[in-house]
Amino acid sequence: MTDISADSRLAELSFEFFPPNTAEGAEKLRLTRARLAALSPSFFSVTYGAGGATRDKTLATVDQIVAEGHAVAPHLSCIGASRESIAELLDGYRSRGIRRLIALRGDLPSGMVDTGDFRYASDLIAFVREHSADHFLIQVAAYPEVHPQAPSAAADLQALATKVRAGADSAITQYFYNADAYFRFCDDALRAGIDIPIIPGIMPINNFVQLARFSDNCGAEIPRWLRQRLASFGDDLAGLRSFGVDVVCRLCERLLDGGAPGLHLYTLNQAEASERIVSGLRLRSTASG
Fold this sequence. Notes:
- It contains ten helices and nine strands.
- It has helices at residues 23-37, 55-67, 83-95, 121-132, 153-166, 179-191, 208-218, 224-232, 237-257, 272-281; strands at residues 9-17, 43-46, 72-77, 100-104, 137-142, 170-175, 198-202, 262-266, 283-285.
- The radius of gyration is 18 Å and the shape is globular.
């Protein structure tokens, strides 16, 4: 359990999962959720595969979280989707009492040519508002180190502004390890008239090879000093993970001290690193009252 004291930080705390592929994976995720629920997060989120590839598994995971009595924010990606299929999902989520969505463009799966009825996340957000008015709180993605497919930082910022005009309520960032990148991005967003909360996405460090692969694919920078330190641990996973918790705790402390409205942790369906980070921060979620 987190050490909740009078001077604990107060912030929105959330944890992200991906839908498991097997019954064994589903049971492991259930145990992970039980451990992380003890930290009183504002919500759990569940990813949605490219082109809706994990739709049924995402729905199953969402239903399990709802049944456990936790708030959940399903990811909703629009590439390859029709207006009818998105409307069906929205109606289903509304019937489950879900009030929060994370609206994304999503990636085009290999071999898929038809992008569907929506080209951009802003098109999806506008449709959600058209179909469901203000029932859902809509969160979107933001990229402090610039989306890898954006032609420029300015264009990337304007894409976020377009999502806000379409009806986005807040943003969650791609993970990063440079706090200055986040603060500069927030300052640039304010100057561009974007005044929604921008919540830092945080990636715990469990495996250097895996992290390096993720980062190379999504454009998240691992600073040179950090990359070299992580590589130096070799097969010493316990040492790497202890060092990683310290690095991420220091990052989160700086973010929260600088005014970040919360933290969204990409758990990769594992509990321990996220538990240690939150406990190290003595973080108290707004959901805990």
